[in-house]
Amino acid sequence: MVVTDEEGNSTEIEGHIDVKDPITLGEVSIDESVARGTDFHAEFMINAVNGIHNITVDVHAHGLTLKDGEVEWDFEKEYLEKYREKTEAEFHEHIDVPATAPAGEYHITFIIEDEEGITKEYETHIDITE
pLDDT above 70 covers what percent of the chain? Predict the structure, then answer.
């Protein structure tokens, strides 16, 4: 960095700047598979420089064939109050899987939005078993 005053005198200094993401996630722990009619566990640390506005979880599958008594399962939930405005929080939730959900692979997306509207996404899969 060089600073020059109105008389033309200047001073120079060298240094390093560490630019960080406004939202970072710690190690994510999510069950790899779960029997329908039970719940699965999701847990991870969130650091959000601007504070957390909300966390959205979306679970869905594509192309699963429904058997008798099964009902297509799509899950979307916004988690607000428990995490809002915190700059550091542990996301720790248990999500119920209906007993009527078809078995198969489901896609999970976690979207963390901060108070400035910046988002961070984490995607994974879970197997729902009979």
Answer: 100
DSSP label at residue 38: S
Is residue 87 within 8 Å of residue 114, measured between CB atoms? no
Whether the CB-CB separation of 22 and 48 falls below 8 Å is answered with yes
The token pair at 126 is 């879970």
Q: Which two tokens stand for residue 31?
A: 């069950």
Rounded CA-CA distance 41/98 in Å is: 15
Q: Residue 19: pLDDT above 80?
A: no
What element of type H or E holds 126? Answer: strand 119-129
Q: Sign of torsion, CA 113 119 122 127?
A: positive
Give 115's Cβ-side CA count (13 Å radius): 11
AA identity, residue 44: F
pTM: 0.85
Residues 6+ apart with CB under 8 A from 26: 44, 45, 46, 47
Buried b (16+ CB within 10 A) or exposed e, 70-79: beebeeeeeb
